Fold each of these.
Amino acid sequence: MRRDSDADAILASRRDAPAFAVLFERHFDAIHGYLRRRVGTDVADELAAETFVQAFASRGRYDRRRPDALPWLYGIAHNLLRHHYRTEERVLRAYARYGVDSSSADANAYSDRDVAAALAELPVHERDVLLLFVWAELSYDEIAVALGLPVGTVRSRLSRGRTRLRELLGGSGQYDDEKELVDG
Amino acid sequence: MDDLTAVQKFRYPPPTTDAAGRATARARLDEAIAAAGRRRARRRVWLVAATSAVAAAAAAVSAAATGVQDRVFDLFAGKPAGPAVRERLLDEVNAERITPIFDGTPGARTEDARAVTAITTMVGPVILWVVPTDSGPTCAFVEVRAVSERAGKPRGESACLAQPSPGGPIVLSSLRSTVEGRPLVVVFGWVAETVASLALVAPDRSERDISVVDRFFLAELPREHERHALVARAATGQELERMTVSAFSLDAWSQIFNRIVTGPERTLIETVNWRGKRLRLAIQPAEGGEECLIIEVAGGRGTSCGRRLGVREGISASLSHSGPYVYLNGSVGPEIDSLELRFQDGEAVAVPIAEGFVLHDIPRARYEEGERPFLLVGRNAAGEIVAEERLGQTSFAKNSSIWR
């Protein structure tokens, strides 16, 4: 049986509001998991809940040509996340200072503490694009939708973010070729 | 291990969502949904009262008026009526009463006249009717029910609206009247497909959402001297256009709705179509840093204005038709150096670009299935494909004016 797209569900919810709950069931775990990795459980609980309440309130503005609502939901989550960037950076710095590294047999592996320190130093707009790409596994187009940016800007921010991340992790090299990235 | 893998592994896997947090979030959403249901119910009660005059008028017009009130309510509730409802509305109520309004409009397909939305204003119900035309623009009629009832026939304001574009996503017109001593200022129009929402923004930055139904909108302006802004946004929330609107300054009114041009037209593209008729694309500066885009096709002329007429990136172009003529128009981003139009039979032609704009005739021989244009391909200066745009085929539909 064909599953209705997110767009179908949102459209249906304009007449039959409870139809919107389908989106919650489909995407809550993804949104919550992403937020949890970024700002921890307590803040993520609040932000994920608010994301769906705000999404419901603004469902009339949803672009029905986009069958998958996940990028849109990430966009709303990001708007809420903006107020918690300092929290995120504090947590990352604390992790970098005191965090326990997962044991790794790979001598070339970066430690979690290195990664936390590097992420804390990344400019927020580069961190957002990078983490949507890596953690949320959004494509360039989807990140563009989520953040309301042109695709070209997404590409350049990701490239700059990777270059900077590599430097912060003690490596080198510049990423200016999208072929090096896997665009979902 | 590369940098992306390191980030991917960091805090992975995330702990699974605990049931309590999920349940709390779901409860908050359910409460929001329930609250929306309660608001809708309250609005329904209020709207039924507000629409009684319309229902009464409908009943008077139609002998078979059973159920008309529900259907009129359906329009007032801000939701587009379903096709069956519209059909019956037209059959029972609208067609006879409204089509004479459009009879004098050249090329108007009066059989397709329909009501798209309605609002309750300070002077009672106001309804927006629209009718497509063979020549392209959609013509609209804003009916003020209180005046219609007094006159015994439809009364309001009509206007033919240009085609909105991504560069000028709002096409705006207005009605300004005094009804039984009370002023009425209504704005109406339609928006480009890129517009997901419209809002009226007050000077204190408070916003009021304006319903967009089938891309049309209708709103009463507040009775204040301050200028408001009509703001169009994309689904992402990105602001596409902001137009200043004010209720009571006639001078300002004139400026808003008949944008004052500040310079001569500058023709960017001028050519002839397959029948030797002129095609022309021009731009003209207007007040407030805006520009107007003018497209003339075989004597017909359409204008749209805005702060930015062309797209910033990629291709935004489509096939349009005017009478028997099909043409391609739109704009491309600065990264696109050349544009190729591909046909279903595998052939391709180069389409000239002038300052980012495109206006190109489609010959009659290309109207038939299997021969039609279907794809635009944009290349950068190095010849690499950087954008593609698939073209809609509605201009070639069986009921299109091109076949008449």
Amino acid sequence: MKKPNDIILKTVTNVAVVIILTFSINLFISGHHNPGGGFIGGLAFVAAIVLLFLVYGIEKVRKNIPLDFKVVAACGVLISVLTGTAGMIFGKPFLYQTFGFVEFPIFGKTELATAVLFDVGVALAVIGTTMTIIMSIGDDR
Amino acid sequence: MSYFYLVLATPFIFALLVPILYKKINPRVHTGWFVLLVPLVLFLYLLSYSAEVYERGAIYLSLPWIPSYDINLTVTIDGLSLIFSLLITGIGFLVVLYSIYYMSKLKEALHNFYVYILLFMGSMLGLVFSDNIFVLYVFWEVTSISSFLLIAYWFEREHSRTGALKSLLITIFGGFAMLAGFILTSIIADTYSIQEMIGKINVIQSHPFFIPAMVLILTGAFTKSAQFPFSIWLPDAMEAPTPISAYLHSATMVKAGIYLVARFTNIYGGVAEWFWLVTGVGFVTLLYGSINAVKQIDLKALLAYSTISQLGLIMCLLGLGSAALYFDAGNEGTVYAIAIFAALFHMVNHSTFKGSLFMLVGIIDHEIGTRDIRKLGGLLHVMPISFLIALTGSLAMAGLPPFNGFLSKELFFTSVLQAAEMPFFAMGTWGHILVAAAWIASVFTFVYCMIVVFKTFFGEQKTDKLKKQAHEAPIGMLIPPLILAGLVIAIFFYPDILSRYFLQPAWEAVLPSFAENPALQIEISQWHGMNREIIMTLGVVAAGIILYKTMKKWSNIYYHYPKVLTLNSIYELIVEEMEVLCLGITKRYMTGSVRDYLTYILGFIILIVGGSVLLLDGISFNMSGNSEVSFFELGLLIAIVITAFTVMFTKTRMASIIAVGGLGFLIVFIFVLFRAPDLALTQIVVETITTVLFLLCFYHLPKFKKEKTSASFKVTNVLISVGIGIVMTIVALSAYGNRLFEPISGFYKNSYEVAGAKNIVNAILVDFRGFDTMLEILVLSMAGLGVYTLIKLRLSRGKENEETK
């Protein structure tokens, strides 16, 4: 088969993937106060990887990201459940979330919330599951 | 939070660690040595509580779990839960020690084994301590599941699998019945706490749902404790490794039903229905188990039937004791209350002697290679220590001195004799029948105890039938049953220590209204003169010896019983018929075609949503408050309609996929117009990913071509699509005009103060409704794994299947 001439696609992808990944992380972090959050952040992250799939093929991506995404999904669920139980140690109900303000040297007054930890779990579960589904279907040739 | 919760959680935490540790240390060190710590530490820790409970009475702890549903991890530490928990951890320790020598570290999947055991131990402890009935129910089912896993431990054997399935079906059936009973009780009493229910006995007992709730709860207890006619799962459960049979299926799990009955005696007891149900079922089980045990040729099956019969004995003692609650308090009731004490006493005794006997059978199986009594014999000289264990265990079970079984058997006879003279609950001639049944069951018990000792250890050695050269077991396998045998004798000589510190508090927990009575100090004595009980025991011994000697002449009777009428064949018939019926129903609607499923789903939506809109008079179009439709909105609408039609009429599949994606992106603009950035963002990413997924599946789809379809198919499609369109339009239009409830959005307005988040949407997701999100990602992950397994399994097995076709 003739090799497709996709030099433009590849060059754009190389730049775009970095931007999408950065944006997805930004989406995740800003979720507490602005639009975003674990679910959207996670999906945007997947979108970046999917772009790599389309351009470079599944095998190449798998070689460069040697992650078992089933494990990622499991870790995500585990993190969410465990951060939920953390509240119980302090005598609070399951899935109790709290927040506080901490003074950091460079960032100044910063808000830290336990909900973000829970959100990390959500993001990982979303990334893991979506990637598992896409990779298994994509593999099935 | 009390440390007690942490201690209760240790088995679960260790269960997580075991597989990791197994990978590290196996096969250098047996994993059991590590697991052994758990029951030991728990036992000592709980022992420290028993002193406190003895001095100060019950302790109550509470930890909120899901407070909005009033589900709390409330713990009751009283005599009853302590005696059970000490049995669980004490026997657990011995069983784990025994299993270290029984389970080979080279051949067996030890990590599974110990994970299941720890899972069981933890849930069983949770069961006996929890005060909230729904928490209790969850632990109850986890014990059923861990029992299922342990019975099917050697899952490559067919018998293990069927036995496991049988036990699961029966116990889970009972569990569901019990759950229904719990729900009824909680509705009646308006509380989930057992302790609070005790305060509302009058409300519960006068309610019309009292009897149904009672029967349902008892069904749960009877299935778990292998009472007639649910007892059939226990003999099949003997396919499990012997340490498991000794632990779950004789000493602990099967006693969960006993625990439940004891716990609820105070709430439900005192009425004739409870008395006759518990006592009657107990007596039938007692007779059924002991008579069937005699005909067994497999030593383990014999012990299984004997366990059934002993559980029946404990159950009927609990039933007899509930008569005490017929009187409010005071002296009239106390004579019957002794039966409860006897039940608890016999339960402890049964755990000791039956545990040692099971371990003995395990030793014989392990060292000789068979459990068939026809092949055994003359082992006395080869295995002298095992013989001692067998002798102690069997004679205790038969109820002879100087073993603890004698004491509790005497108490059993006392209780039955007293109950026979009971002037209420329509006892009448039934009293004599009960006494006769108790006596006959004891005779058969005596006979099978003789079989265990004499058929195995005396007579000729049948070396030619054995695969292995017989020899004594390693010392590690002998120590646990020897400890139990030592206890059997020690309890006979010093019963008062056990009675004062453990049985008395437990008994007071079952019957708190009698606890204040200072005259009630039950003394257990080895000899109370020549009374009726002793005469009954002597009669049992005499009749038992005669029956054993003449066994060859009468044992043929067993084979005359028609096989069709056995409980097992009835069970099999039910299961078979159910399978046929369910398969028939399922095949009707599970056609395997996605189109049909879509028809069901959409048709259902039309019926339910459309129907409720019609019935509730929901159709009202109120356009007065609407704002003007702007130019952008109109433009978007036209674009959406055009794209939708493109999807329908395009000639290639690729174009329609892209059109569907375009439709999604157009909706994003609507979200943007209405200032919902979160929704817009989510829609963008979801649309991107689904389009890619669609393209991936593209490869597998059949060729896009004009299909010839029947007219009825087309008509259904038209009906469904038009119906859905109309229903959705009506709902969307009338949603604005109708307001059935107060909007809940006000609650989330102060998200910044409550959750510290300016983004309400995300605060709802991770904080306000965190539980939903957690379950959602769980479901999502499961769906992902489902897709993975469906595709991967088909890939790897595809060839195999084709070859076998």
